[in-house]
Structure formats: structure tokens, C-alpha cells
Amino acid sequence: MLGDRPRRRDLLIEFLHLIQDRYRHLSANHIAALAHEMRLAQAEVYEVATFYAHFDVVEDGETPPPSLTIRVCDSLSCEMAGAEALQKALSDGLDPAEVRVVRAPCMGRCDTAPVLEIGHNHIDHATPEKTKAAIAAGDTHAKIPEYEDFDAYRAAGGYEALAALRADGDWEELQDKILSSGLRGLGGAGFPSGKKWGFVRANPGPRYLAVNGDEGEPGTFKDRYYLERTPHPFLEGMLAAAWAVEAERCFIYMRDEYPAVLEILRREIAALENAGIVSEGYIDLRRGAGAYICGEESAMIESIEGKRGLPRHRPPFVAQVGIFDRPTLVHNVETLYWVGKICREGPEILSGTVKNERVGLRSYSVSGRVQNPGVYLLPAGSTILDIIEAAGGMLEGHSFKAYQPGGPSSGLLPSSLDDVPLDFDTLQPHGTFIGSAAVVVLSDQDSARDAALNMLKFFEDESCGQCTPCRVGCEKAVKLMQTDSWDQDLLEELCGVMADASICGLGQAAPNPIRLVMKHFPEEI
């Protein structure tokens, strides 16, 4: 199965995927054979395989799972759309000896909730009938949407800007152009994008570039939206940034829940190699394996190296000690998409005008109780009312009650705060932040308390377990939130410890849903 692939340690997760894809599980014999082949301890292979949700490790004496697994998304948007009832109907209506039905975290398709996955095929607006029809048809492969391929992009002038940079460009001039556009990291941190380049170049090579495509924050799907339609602005932006820091290789870490995107990238990377724009192997596409924590940049780097995705202690920062302990530039997918656009069209491409004032633009992933969920490119600082209007207004029969401004990490805000600009640096006074701009709209038919519990269950599942405040804190928070009346003093004490003592942003931000519900929806708890 491995053929002539190099038996490098960093390819362990890729090899585990090969086995899982073929056999639908990982047996003790598989782990022993892979450990032997790669000259690793079996314990090392086992600990990596069991860390990731998409690997089904079967112990000696256990029965392997059925050949078909249905994963039903239970994120907030899907739960509001009836995912729990859908999962129950499928569990009751399908033979468990032939089909396994399990819950799964957000699949990045919140605009088509409820969603489930059969093999590599996603069923949008899923119903038991649609699911059973797909099973009967053996429809388990990813559906590739129509998109702008290499030939179409190049015919429209694509990669001319990259060629000009490589011919006689000045990296500092490009950095200044990126800074003047106002582009900030769009994965959630919001750090000025161009500034990273100088930090990485200040360290001796070899250097690498890593793309964080692990868009796992529930409610977020903007990266998938762009990659399934126009992947090449992202790829050209990535290669421009790699040129700027003299990266010896680019790693694209893409979440496993995006099989169509993975196939599109495989095709288009091959097209770049055939056209001579990159050498073979210069772009290394890696599959995630179902771990939200790998959206944290140092955990992603650990995963790229074939390890468990445990966040590193910092300093040193990844700009100094990243992949294989070398300086590494890390960017989010959408950030590089706009780098590509800015290279071709100038810094003004990321600007809009509101009331005669120049403002930036932001991609908002919008789902929940709106007429037309989707990705909306709007002026930065749009309010929730602007976003709801862009999405066609509230669903008929629903009144606006609350909203999640930037994924579960941002918690919930009430409808009374409908005039707050949703942008970097504007939400902190309200105890929250814009994050990845994952906006979920709740109505009078939803419970803020239940929404917060949904978010904490997600954090409980996705905590990597490395640090006690997050690992134990999320579990205890869920138990406390399931009581009829919340012990607010105890929850606040717990939130304080989690926020102050957790190693990474997961545990630090997990208290936000609790605190904001206690503040704005006291009547529910």
C-alpha cells in the first residue's frame, strides 16, 4: 500500500489515512505493521492514531465498525435545524450491523444545515429519505463543484503578478503593499499580515510556509467557499508569500471534512507543477484527521510533523521555531486569497466605502435563522442588522433574539447589542471578539442557555487534554450547565481559572459562552 513512498516520520498521519480509507478502520495488526515499516514504536503510532477523530482504532478482540459510517453534524446551526431528530431517525431506521450513525463536530457547511457525511459525500439539507437514497445508490464519493481551474485563471492574467515578483520584485515593497491594504490575519487572530514576513526573514533559513486550512470553528465556512469556487487567487497568494520569505517548501494543512477541496487542490497543484510554476513536491498537501485543536498554529505544525496536535508552549514562536524547528510563516487560507488579489489588483481591492469613508471588507459566514445563509463580503464593521439584511432577513415567523459574532469562542450577544460593528477591536469592550467572523443568528424560538451548552460540549470534545484547566474545566462546565439552575459563582470561578491558566486559545476562550449568557440572559439560568 505504501509503495515507494519515503518512510519519513512526518508522513505517519498520511499513511494512517491510506489504511483507514481502504479498510475503514485501523486494527492492532495495521498499527504493528506500520510501526515496523516506519521503524517507530507501536505506542508512538497508537498515540497518534487515537488522537484524531477520523481514525477508527480497533483493539484486539473488538468488532470493527460497519463498512459504512454516517457522521451527523451537531454544531449549533445544525442543531437548530433538527440534527438531533435526524440522527435519531437514522439510528432507528438503519441496520446497525451495516451502517454506523455517529455525531460529529462542525463540517463547515452551516449554510446548508442540517448536514451529514457518508464516506466522503456530504448530504446538505439532510433528511432520512435523502440519506437512505444516497446509501442505496452507493453515493459515498465527494462531489466536485464547478470552479475556475488553472487554464481559466491563467487566461485571465493569473500568475503574471507572481512571475513579475520572481523576475525583479522587492519583497519589502510587496510587504508594504500588503500592510497598506489593511489586511489582517483572517483565521481569527487579526495580526497585520505583512508584519509576519519580516519576523520570519529575520531568522536564518531554511524557512517554510504553512497554510492553516483547518477551518474548524463551528459556523465558519468562508475558506471552503472560496476554495470550491476560485482556488487560484489563494494559490498565487501563497506562492507570493513563500517568495517573500524565501520558503523552501509550502505545506497546506486542509481539514479532512473538506474532501472536495482536497481533490480540487490536488488537481490544481498538479497543474502548477505541469506548467513549471512550481517544482514537483514544492507544495505539500496534508490532510487533517478531525481535530479542532489543529487550527491552533503550533498544534497544526505538530500534526504536519506526523504527531498528536498538542499546542506548543511559547516562546519560541513559530516564526523562529516552526516546522522541523525551522522558521515558519503561517497564514490562513482567506488571508492568502486576499494576498493573491492584492498582488494582481492592488491594495484597494480589499476596501469599500461607507458614508464616504474608506473601510476594509470582511467575509462573514452567516447561518442560523436567516432566509439565505451563506458567505457575504461586506464592509468591515457592519452590524448584525446589516448582516441579517444581507442574508435576506430573518426566517418567517422568527424574531431576532441573539447572535454569535465569531464562532463559539466568541459566545453570544443579545439582540439589544445590534449596533456594535463586527470587526477587529470593536467587540472586546463587550467581552467578545470577531474571530473568524462566523455569525450564527438565533431567534425567539431558541434558547441561549442551550446554545451555550452546545458550545461547551464542543469544547469538551475537542480539548486536546494537554492542560488540566481546559481538559477538566470544559467537562465540569458542561456538568454545571446541565443543572436546572446554574451555580453562577462556581461557574465564574471555573471560568477564571480556565481563561487564566489554559495553554492555548481553546481553554482561554471556552468561558465566553458561559459568561455572556450569565450576563445577558439571566432569566434562562
Structure characterization notes:
By secondary structure, this protein is α/β, with parallel strands linked by helices. 41% of the residues lie in helices and 16% in strands. The strands form 4 sheets. Strands 11, 12, 13, 14, 15 and 16 form a 6-stranded mixed β-sheet that branches. A 4-stranded mixed β-sheet has the order 4-3-5-6, covered by helices on one side. The longest helix has 16 residues, at 259-274. The chain is globular, with a radius of gyration of 23 Å. The termini are far apart.
The poorly predicted ranges are none
C-alpha Rg, in Å? 23 Å
Q: Describe the largest sheet.
A: 6 strands, mixed
Structural class: alpha/beta
Number of helices: 21
Name the assembly state.
single chain
Specify the helix fraction band: 40-55%
- Count of distinct strands: 16
Shape: globular
Give the DSSP E fraction (strand runs of 2 or more residues). Answer: 15-25%
Structure, briefly:
The protein has helices at residues 12-23, 28-38, 42-51, 76-80, 83-93, 128-136, 150-155, 160-168, 171-181, 193-201, 222-227, 231-244, 259-274, 297-304, 333-345, 384-390, 448-462, 468-481, 488-501, 505-509, 511-520, and strands at residues 26-27, 57-58, 68-73, 99-104, 116-118, 121-123, 207-213, 247-254, 283-287, 328-332, 351-354, 357-368, 374-379, 400-404, 413-414, 438-443.
